[in-house]
Sequence to fold (76 residues):
Amino acid sequence: MVTAFVMVVSEPGKEKELAEELRRLPQVKQLWEVYGEYDIVARLGVESLQVLDSFVREKIRRMTSVRLTTTMISVE
Fold:
């Protein structure tokens, strides 16, 4: 199991809507709406790095309210 944290910058005013959309995805284990450089921090749990790569690129980054993502992969 791979654990990763994805920090998301959303379109202005779309933070809550995007957070709810992300919460519906089974790979999102926890999600926080935050203030600062990012709007959302999501903890993901996926089977492999390959699955993580495709999930972030093909699911999260393609959401219409997503402006930018940064992904950190946990080593423990």
Notes: The longest strand covers residues 2-10. The beta strands are 2-10, 28-33, 40-46, 66-73.
